[in-house]
Amino acid sequence: MGLHQMTDRIELVQGDITQQETEAIGNAANSRLAGGGGVDGAIHRAGGPSLMEDLKANYPRGCPTGQAVITGGGRLKARYVLHAVGPVYSGKPKDAELLASAYRACLSLCSQHGIKTAAFPSISTGAYRYPLKEAAPIALRTVAAYLTTHPEIALVRFVLFDSATYAAYQQALEVIQGRFAS
Ligand code: AR6
Asked: Which residues line ligand 1 (CB under 6 A)?
């Protein structure tokens, strides 16, 4: 399977992840799983209190950076939320590995729970200040690589909140597709 076929299962849209009808949506959480601003605040508001109850009951010690945990979706259209903890950008090489690992952890939860469709926000590029031009290709390459070995995942949709984020992902996807097009 070439990268072309893998990237056929990746979609980019500009929008609000809380409105997605994929089986799961990703959240850009913090390691205390304490809730916060940005997409995390929006998901907890839209999903309702059951998300935090689920987190407190099942993951009282939080979640390490680069990992993810799963809860129900509460009042969201999505049945599940994948709470991923991306790195706070430091400029060190480990940032890229932790960011890739956060996406892989979400995808691995999808495989374990039979989730075939998932939507992701741009993890770490808001409050955690990961530069978009670096984060977008890492996010896309990590997902594309996972899809090659996991045909059970039918769709990964990146839901990018603002036009600059959407443009950065669009450009990164074109580079990845262009390089591997047959
Ligand atoms: N749908 C999709 N994307 C969104 C939405 C939305 N409704 N709202 C914001 N974004 P951020 P981080 C975008 O800061 O950098 C929180 O306080 C946003 O425009 O949400 O990983 C957590 O509790 C940006 O492109 O996440 C953590 O403490 C992207 O989501 C910390 O922030 C990520 O921005 C995590 O920081």
From this structure: 16-18, 28-30, 36-40, 42, 86, 121-128, 159, 161-162, 165
In contact, 121 and 37? CB cutoff 8 Å:
no
DSSP structure class, residue 90: -
User: Which tens digit of pLDDT belongs to each residue from 79-135?
Assistant: 999 999 999 999 999 999 999 999 999 999 999 999 999 999 999 999 999 999 999
- Residue 77 token pair: 């259209």
| Domains within the chain, CATH numbers bracketed | 3-179 (3.40.220.10)
Give tens-digit pLDDT for 151-181. Answer: 999 999 999 999 999 999 999 999 988 865 5
**Bridging pattern class, strands 117-120 and 24-29:** parallel
Q: How far lies 144's CA from each of 33, 78, 81, in Å? A: 27, 22, 21
